[in-house]
Write a structure and sequence with these properties.
Strand content: under 5%
Radius of gyration: 21 Å
Shape: elongated
Largest sheet: none
Order of helices and strands: HHH
Distance between the termini: 87 Å
Helix content: 55-70%
Number of strands: 0
Structural class: mainly alpha
Length: about 100
Amino acid sequence: MTGASVALLAGTMSTILFASSALPMVVRAIRTRDLASYSPANLVLANVGNAVHCIYVVHLPPGPIWFLHGFYVVTSALMLLWWLRFHAPRRHVGRPVREVVT
């Protein structure tokens, strides 16, 4: 086995492992539409990071990194869109404000 084929095998295996580790999060978000535990700042930064990383990935030869990066681009974008669509604004929890009549 050559160094290139070992690298391709390692890239393929890591792509499968990373993608499969993120799938439960995506499936849960689809099923429950509960994205309250996700930070909007993190979702935005992940999408910006993916956009910048695209510049690097497109200059690499086609391989497992393209599939992994594509998976991250799609899932990060979907999670942000779902957060924007399904996230209910938090309501203030506390005592109700009483109106003062004078």
